[in-house]
Amino acid sequence: MFVREYKLIEHLSTGVVKCTIIMGAYSIKELEQLSGIKAHTIRIWEQRYRIIEPQRTETNIRLYDDNQLKYLLNVALLTRHGYKISLISKLDDAGFKKEVEKIYEQTLLHNTDVILDLDANDLMVSMIDMNSEKFHRIYENSVRNNGFEKTITDLIYPFLEKVGILWTLNQINPTHEHFISCLIRQKIISGIDLLPNPTGGKKYVLFLPEGETHEIGLLMANYMLKKKGCSVYYLGQNLPDRDVERCIETIEPNGILTFFVDPAVVSNAANSIAKYRGFNQNVQILIAVRSSPELESLDLENVHFLHGMKDLDKYL
Question: N or C: which end of the chain has fewer CB within 10 A?
Fold first, then answer.
């Protein structure tokens, strides 16, 4: 535990993420980011209601473990649905679990007139517990009430942003990430398969460049393009530039779409874009990437930067 504390302090003081940080040592600020409960509120709840008791370093920095994070996520669930923290604090473990399960039962198993909203916190709990049944129940309920696209944009994406926070902090077990990513991939692929196969329409090549492996966003772009009647050539992840060139020569698409997420890929973005433009000057190049002054300043013909699925929808 002392090794873990030392490494976390090093991370907080320097801003450098160390690959050797062990999952399960969260600062109060990180807890706020993941649960949505303000750090000030967490402190008050600790002092007034003793809902959680963090460990502290020699310099008095609060540290929280995975179980405390999961507990606070469920506290957030209960408070969203009208439970007072004064009541929650008096529940024993069995009573707390019963109330949480009651929320899920009311929300997921019955067709009530008032639908209780579930959000990314609940998917976070299903990931930590590696509970596929809970994931499926949350997802299917959302699709039933909100439709596939709204489920992806309003439920899955906010959840993935929280997973991204964990990655940034180096606080996620790769097993958990692979577990939940595979479940989400399966759902999006199923949604794609339900769409009719387009005939004619514009042609788009979808791929991730070398170094990029997370393809959930690319799969969702596949869904949106196919729904708009476009012919999609989906080449998947980690594709070398030479294979992109061959594909463009063979298919002669109207456009290519890719994602730049990994820092190493983003840092080489200008060179990659120059290569893609050299393959065919007439092809529209769509790049999903975080907003960046350096990239926006390029202002190149036939190059379009997308900062979200809404940007792709506008482009189409």
Answer: N
